[in-house]
Write a structure and sequence with these properties.
This protein is 20% helix and 30% strand. By secondary structure, it is an alpha+beta fold. The strands form six sheets. Strands 16, 17, 18, 20, 23, 25 and 26 form a seven-stranded antiparallel beta sheet that branches. A six-stranded mixed beta sheet has the order 1-2-3-5-4-7. Helix 3 packs across helix 4. One of its GO terms (molecular function) is dipeptidyl-peptidase activity.
């Protein structure tokens, strides 16, 4: 018998059913808490499911929302505003994934790998909820980030009572969740281990490594030795420790050991599974987190049923506990779960906030306006220009920088190029590319590109980013188009030191208008600065693995090596001079 109690949230009384046991088809039971109004009448239910612990989510009842850089911000409190959900007359179901929190069973690997499919467990939980007397049989899902990814995994299983989902800030291509352009990103470590502003997964000893289960000890030892040959990995204490002691966090060990894309990531990739989704899907993402914007667009284009894509404004991180987007979410569920014709489906499917102009652009597709890809060339003296360099390399000497490993310096060297001030509002919407001709003296480095909007008073805002590990420079020529490069990341090809290579870096999708007097500034480095206007808004672990060896870089930008940005200018306005 469930423990049923009542709690007060301001003037609101909430009925709480604690530690309900939910049977899975293989006999394992999951634990869930249910928050609802005190009446006995059945209601639609919104299901949240993650490994972060249902008890942590209950802080939404007592903790005011925290915005980064608040030290109380915790990236794992993502199941939504419980009191608001109950006030809107839904049952809020918050469950612990298999092997986490109070649930039974063992969790194998990351949420894309091994064991019982997480979508299968979500299916069983949703169908159980629909049968309960406090539910009217109409079920949606709620929650951002991991909770958002779980919604897609669940919907792909097609549980009959799941009527719609509302996904905010999910992670979809799981290779790109951890390796941006082949460069390891540390935020997934934070989510798993509980470092840098995250409580982490609520696992004890019930999460196991798929790699350790699949391969012999000899094969695992061989793979570990190969990873430790990477100077970037060998210079990072946390990774050295993990590779020697995988039980420290076995899911993170699996990801570190799989630095290339392939079947291990693709078999449970929600982008691949989305073609099986036929229920209505609302996708919401804010600008400033490029890979998640990219993933939402890719997912939107894969879905076949009723769908919406909303790209919101900067800054990149929502509050924790998560309270944003609830107004639109409840309009969505009022329509699909309660049958109220509130007009939400009358608007165009794509809704994009444009930074700078602060205009909202709507359309039936992404990008929401016609665009023309135009180049901005890297020129001498840090200039970006619409015209190419006419001199050859013998006269247009390359720019360059030397970066020492961050084990011996705390200074990150950055090259930058700037347009002249724009004379009229200039709008860009879409993805882009940086074509950079670079010579290095090592077999590998990172290529990190960041674009900024810089106001006349010097204030600047990040517009988009791009990452590429030099050894991952190979392009899929069939999938690559102008302004939209595609790297398969299925093998690493070391760079020949001293050779000039063209690196085509994907710039994640963005939407921005550069106002008169503003400049577009692009920065190039192989490591990220330790702190700046953008990084201060992210969790402390939301950075990329630094290069572990000293590297000298020469950037050629001459008539034979036309280093340039290729950007999506809307056809309404002129490009920069």
């Amino acid at each position: 018998m469930a423990d049923i109690r009542q709690v007060q949230a301001g003037t609101q009384t909430i009925s709480v059913r604690k530690d309900l046991r939910v049977p899975m088809r293989d006999g394992v039971t999951l634990a869930a808490d249910v928050y609802s109004g005190v009446g006995d009448e059945p209601r639609p239910a919104l299901v949240a499911l993650s490994p972060y612990g249902k008890e942590l989510q209950a802080l939404a009842l007592t903790m005011p929302p925290q915005r980064r850089p608040s030290p109380m911000w915790d990236g794992c409190i993502e199941a939504g505003d419980i009191a608001r959900v109950v006030a809107e007359d839904y049952a809020h179901v918050i469950g612990d994934l298999r092997g986490s929190g109070a649930s039974e069973g063992e969790h194998v690997g990351n949420y894309n790998a091994g064991g019982v499919s997480l979508g299968q467990d979500a299916y069983d939980l949703i169908e159980w909820v629909a049968e309960q007397p406090w539910c009217d049989g109409n079920v949606g899902m709620i929650g951002i980030s991991y909770f958002g990814s779980m919604q897609v995994l669940a919907a792909a299983e097609r549980p009959p009572h799941l009527k719609a989902i509302f996904v905010s800030g999910g992670h979809f291509d799981f290779y790109e969740t951890t390796y941006h352009g082949g460069v390891m990103w540390f935020m997934p470590r934070a989510a798993r281990e509980g470092r840098g502003g995250d409580s982490g997964w609520a696992f004890t000893d019930r999460i196991t490594s798929r790699m350790l289960e699949t391969y012999s000890p000899e094969e695992v030892a061989k793979r570990v030795a190969e990873r430790l040959q990477d100077p970037d990995v060998a210079a990072w204490p946390n990774l050295v420790h993990l590779l020697h002691y995988p039980e420290h966090h076995e899911a993170w060990f699996d990801i570190v050991l799989n630095e290339l894309d392939g079947d291990w990531y693709e078999e449970r990739n929600p982008i691949n599974l989305a073609q099986d989704i036929d229920i209505p899907v609302y996708l919401q993402i804010d600008q400033g987190r490029g890979w998640t914007v990219d993933g939402h667009i890719e997912l939107f284009e894969t879905l076949k049923g009723p769908k919406k894509l909303v790209i919101g404004s900067y800054p990149p991180m929502q509050s924790r506990p998560w309270v944003e987007e609830h107004d639109e979410m409840f309009r969505w569920y009022e329509y699909w779960l309660k049958g109220v014709d509130n007009g939400i489906m009358d608007k165009p499917a794509v809704n994009v906030f444009v930074e700078g102009s602060r205009e909202v652009v709507t359309a039936a597709q992404w990008p929401p306006r016609d665009v023309e890809y135009r180049p901005l060339y890297l020129r001498p003296r840090g200039r970006l220009s619409g015209g190419p360099e006419l001199m050859g390399p013998e006269h247009a000497a390359p720019d360059g920088w030397y970066q020492a490993p961050l084990t011996v310096t705390d200074e990150v060297q950055i090259l930058s190029w700037s347009t002249a001030p724009f004379e009229e509002p200039t709008e860009l919407i879409g993805a882009g590319a940086a074509h950079l001709f670079i010579e290095i003296d090592q077999p590998d480095t990172n290529v990190i590109v960041r674009l900024w909007d810089v106001a006349p008073n010097g204030r600047r805002q990040l517009i988009t980013t791009g990452y590429l590990k030099a050894s991952h420079r190979e392009l899929d020529e069939e999938r690559t188009t102008e302004g939209n490069p595609y790297h398969p990341h299925t093998r690493a090809v070391p760079v020949e030191p001293g050779a000039i290579e063209e690196y085509v870096v994907r710039l994640y999708p963005f939407a921005a208008t550069f106002l008169p007097g503003h400049r577009l500034v692009t920065e190039l480095s192989n490591d990220e600065p330790l702190a700046d206007e953008h990084n201060s808004l992210l969790p402390p672990d939301a950075f990329h693995l630094p290069v572990g060896r000293p590297v000298t870089h020469k950037v050629y930008r001459d008539a034979r090596h036309p280093s340039r940005l290729v950007l999506p200018f809307t056809t309404r306005v002129a490009a920069a001079r």
